[in-house]
Amino acid sequence: MRGGSIAVVGGSIAGSAFAGAAARLGAERIVVLERSPGRLEDRGVGICIHDDRLDELVRAGHLGRDVRRHRLTVRRWVTRDPSPGGGGPDGRGRALWAQPMPFHSHHWAVLWQALRERTPATVEYRLGTTVTAVGGGPDGAWTSHPDGTREHYDLVIGADGYRSAVRAALCPEALPEYAGYVCWRGSYDAARLAELPGGAGAWPEDECATVCYPGGQVVLYRIPGLTPGTTQVNWVFYAPTPAWLRLDGPTSIPAGSLTDGQLDGLRALAEERLPPYWSDVVTLTPRDRTFLQPVYDMAAPCLAADRLLLGGDAATVVRPHNTSGAVKALQDAHAFEQAGRAVGHPAGDRPAGSWSGLLAAYDRERAPAGRELVDLGRRLGRAQVGAAPDWAAMDGPAMDAWWRGQLTGGSGFGGQALDRAAPRG
Ligand SMILES: Cc1cc2nc3c(=O)[nH]c(=O)nc-3n(C[C@H](O)[C@H](O)[C@H](O)COP(=O)(O)OP(=O)(O)OC[C@H]3O[C@@H](n4cnc5c(N)ncnc54)[C@H](O)[C@@H]3O)c2cc1C
Prior knowledge:
Oligomer: single chain
Bound molecules: flavin-adenine dinucleotide
Distance between the termini: 16 Å
CATH architecture of the largest domain: 3-Layer(bba) Sandwich
């Protein structure tokens, strides 16, 4: 596949990766249409990536080795100690298990910036551009915009996240399904840990903590700060649905928008359910760095047809327990690029059949891969949140056996191997 015009709807992780892949394939014109008007750098969240998955993506040319990241080595599972206060001798609760964790954590913005810098200057990024509708057919696709204009392309790629407008055109029946619980999220400068008992050193920098309580868990780890040499605390707190949450529209509550009462609810939950040290780590978070996302999942039945193609969360929404969403988005872009090469033609010789071949090869490969990840996310969610064991009765061997029981099936924690992402035949 060479030449042609491609619109990528959404300029986040998936959008930037697809724009880069389209450029490497030799598309003549690539336009990224992103509705956020401002700096996407401001999204302050952590993304963990398995070391093997990152190495594969670096070797395949999707990322550089020099992306600033933070090394994690162990995931320490803890729960409240049976002693009064629940903290045990160091306030950090009772250790359940030390699980090897060959991951690095990333600041979303640093990762996004690295991807953005790898897209050539010829890619046109249009920020503040909302796509209101999309359509496609055998000969081309279009996007429409709030001012009524319509733009025509050879291909429109939906990298527009879990409420994708492109998916609404391609397979309107595929809707994200609420998992029945939410995650509260927060981040702040890790220097503030010095305010806690034991100082900043009480929590080793390479440790990801998973604090388990009946009905949920909190995953906490450090990520690189926006300024080189600094780190931030990042946490994800899986919790029951708050009574005030409405689930009938766009349901994330952005940072800075939670009310005092809602934040009091989070504080009360942390104080009641977590060992004191971890409750303090959560409640140190400034209000303008605390937000909430309901947990959803969904696998679209069809990822490409009629000159429309879905990637990243637009194609497959996986519960965050898998720690695989960013990897999957990059692997989707890789599969698109491989499919494009497989149907390649010399420049100037581009029969219409090559587009349909590309779309079919991509769909064949990525639809089952997405379904596997969604299934794994459901298993992990059930085992860790919905139907979690009695944590008080667990120890190292029991945790090890419990974890292995969740990983049956093809896809691993942290995402699938990249050769699984390459179209076969
Ligand atoms: C709690 C939580 C923790 C996670 N942790 C991890 C982790 O540790 N590791 C990991 O790999 N993944 C993790 N993920 C998943 C990961 O964040 C995503 O899967 C990944 O970032 C891919 O996102 P995306 O680019 O597909 O979509 P998004 O980041 O949602 O981007 C979609 C973009 O499209 C734009 N857009 C939407 N609609 C329109 C429109 N109509 N017109 C124009 N633009 C539009 C949006 O503004 C946005 O910029 C986590 C997710 C959650 C919820």
